[in-house]
Amino acid sequence: MSLSPEQRAEIEAQRATIASTRRTVANGMEAQLYTAHEVLDHGFVRVIDYMGDDAAICQAARVSYGKGTRSVSNDEGLIRYLMRHWHSTPFEMCEVKFHVKLPVFVARQWIRHRTANVNEYSARYSILDREFYIPAPDALAAQSTVNNQGRGALLEGEEAARVLEVLKGDAARCYDNYEAMLSQDGQKGLARELARMNLPANIYTQWYWKVDLHNLFHFLRLRADMHAQYEIRVYAETICRVVADWVPLAYKAFEDYRLGGVALSATGMACIRRMVNGETVTQENSGMSKGEWREFEALLNG
């Protein structure tokens, strides 16, 4: 990861500053504040600010003045109930603001989650750094033969070397031309807002991303899933670890009911009941298509 000495100094200065406050703080998140967690080859995730904790979720659900006589076990039971029954508003009482550095093509996936506030580094005003995402060898894979959105077998040997060479060469050449178009050596140079169109989708951008906990859990349920694209999944997995420190009771319930849970159709539930009653159920008599049956079997087999 390419944090500059100035950025590292700024982070250390931020982490060294202690402020007294009357508001509730989450000790786990206080330990996380401003720390840059490395992701991919040049990316990172770090927490800039947050509001609320596990108790804030329960407080909103009860609309109470404080903890009162409730115990941690009461709070855990309430949070699990809220998660189990898909309540949303109490989780919206907690918010977090991340600073994320990520490849542009990952950002374009990420931005589809529209229930957040985003401010991105502007290539209209500033010149982007010469930093590109180049996949590690174990992330180079062919197109899946069964999933139009997924990856199949790893590329190896000469084929992998050829692809890496193309990725590196194209990225360098595009950035060289980008710089040349901006050049001030005796020429006006093209406007930054136009020159940026020549940059590849694997160049890094940065943004501040502020989201409430309910919508963050929705993002993590989709993007931390094993079927999500690797490059966005590693960001989601990093955020999962941060959230687990911030709201441990809520994250535990989320992990149990969302990440580790499954959703079944009425047809799927009917098949399970038939199996429990000793009936042999196959794709042909299940009432499912081949694709549905394949996914159903994957759920049953873990």
UniProtKB/TrEMBL annotation:
Pfam families with a match to the protein in the record: Thy1
Cofactor(s), names only, from the UniProt record: FAD
Enzyme's top EC category: transferase
Keyword Methyltransferase: yes
Protein name: Flavin-dependent thymidylate synthase
Gene: thyX
GO biological process, one term: dTTP biosynthetic process
Amino-acid positions noted as binding FAD in the UniProt annotation, renumbered to this chain: T89, R112, H113, R114, E120, D212, L213, H214, H218
Binding residues annotated for dUMP, in chain numbering: Q109, W110, I111, R112, E120, Y121, S122, A123, R124, R196, R223
Catalysed reactions, semicolon-separated: dUMP + (6R)-5,10-methylene-5,6,7,8-tetrahydrofolate + NADPH + H(+) = dTMP + (6S)-5,6,7,8-tetrahydrofolate + NADP(+)
InterPro entries according to UniProt: Thymidylate_synthase_ThyX (IPR003669), Thymidylate_synthase_ThyX_sf (IPR036098)
GO molecular function, one term: thymidylate synthase (FAD) activity
Listed NCBIfam families: thyX
EC number in record: 2.1.1.148
Gene3D superfamilies: 3.30.1360.170
Catalytic residues, chain numbering: R223 (involved in ionization of n3 of dump, leading to its activation)
Family: Belongs to the thymidylate synthase ThyX family.
SUPFAM superfamilies registered for this protein in UniProt: Thymidylate synthase-complementing protein Thy1 (SSF69796)
Role according to the record: Catalyzes the reductive methylation of 2'-deoxyuridine-5'-monophosphate (dUMP) to 2'-deoxythymidine-5'-monophosphate (dTMP) while utilizing 5,10-methylenetetrahydrofolate (mTHF) as the methyl donor, and NADPH and FADH(2) as the reductant.
